[in-house]
Amino acid sequence: MRSQDGLLEVGFMRTVFDSLGAGVFVTDMTGRLTACNPRAAQLLGRPRDRMLGHDLHDLLHRRRDGGRIPRSECGLLTVLESGRAAEGTEELFLRGDGSLVPVIWAATPLRHEGHAEGMVIVFHDFSLHRNAAEQTAAYLAALEGLTARLTMVAEVSSVLISPSDTTETLKKLAALLVPDMGDWAAIDLRSPENTGSMRRVAVCSAGDQEAADSLTGPLPSLPESTRSAAIQALRTAEHVVLDSDALAERPDSPLARAHRELFDRLGGVCAVVVPLHTRRQVLGALTVARVAPGSSYTEAEIFVLADIGRRAGLVMEAAELFEQQRHVAETMQRQLLTPLPQVDHLTMAARYRPAESAAEVGGDWYDSFLLSDGVLTMVIGDVVGHDLRAAAHMAEVRNMLRALAWDRTEPPSLIMRRLDEAMTHTSDAPMATCVFGRIEGPEGGPWQLQWVNAGHPPPLLVTADGEARFLDAGHGPLLGLSSALHLGLGWPDARADLPPRSTLLLYTDGLVESRTRDLEAGLDSLRRHASALAGRDVEDFLDELLERIDPSGDDVAMLVLRIPEAGAGSGDGQAPALHAHSPAAPGRGAPGSRVEDTPVRDTSEPP
Question: Does the model's pTM come out above 0.85?
Answer without folding.
Answer: no
